[in-house]
């Protein structure tokens, strides 16, 4: 397998993402929430790293993404950005960070860029256009997100596949085009039928990044912890596990715990020694 070490390659830029999409190269995006996950994702050579608001349910123990705040997102983005990934770094606008006013939206998204993101992702279709226009005017690249948008959990009545009914499918097509016309550089399509995602993709010239939207999208995104088996089973239908992270890490920790209890950890390999002269002084010392 010819595989150039990611660190020897130039940093991924937005024009590069578009060039790859035009060449028909499928784009790869995953999430990262801290330095270790960012380093692993970047070393694997993904094209884009998203600090997703999924940090809320994946890392922070919330039931959904609604409680995630700008302060939480900034904290996690800063940790990821400090690793200076080669992948294009994007940050997710959490619930209420782009709903209140244009000024608030710009301050929040601009803060992401000042912390090292190259662009932002936000959920929603045409009704978010005023905020999207303002962001683009302020030179902030925007990735849209349509379909099963987790921040719309309540109006959707749960995490349900979207766009199955005729009117919903046509509305999604319409929305996708409105976001493209507005100037979004790409959009996530989540939880929609594969044939609808295929039609959206073939009628747009900007890339579509699918999650539960079938194979015809210009690229795919999955949550880091889902790919690696670190989230509880059963995951959603659209997840494929490429490692049994939970079991493997639990087994490793259980073996370490056994070694500690048996006195087998640490041994000389993990211990420091005194210089000979100090050792005899220490041995001769009495209270
Ligand atoms: O927050 C997130 O992780 C996401 C991706 C799964 C697209 O929005």
Question: How would you characterize this protein structure?
Answer:
The chain is α/β, with parallel strands linked by helices and 287 residues long. It folds into two domains: 238 residues, TIM Barrel (Alpha-Beta Barrel), CATH 3.20.20; 37 residues, no CATH class. It has twelve helices and eight strands. Strand 3, helix 5 and strand 4 form a beta-alpha-beta unit. Helix 5 crosses helix 6 and helix 8 packs parallel to helix 9. It starts with 13 loop residues before the first helix and ends with a helix. The model has no long low-confidence stretch (mean pLDDT 96). Bound molecules: 3-methyl-2-oxobutanoic acid (KIV).
Structural class: alpha/beta
What is the assigned CATH homologous superfamily of the largest domain? Phosphoenolpyruvate-binding domains
The tally of domains stands at: 2
3D shape: elongated
Question: In summary, what is this structure?
Answer:
This protein has 287 residues and is of the alpha/beta class. Helix content is 41%, strand content 13%.
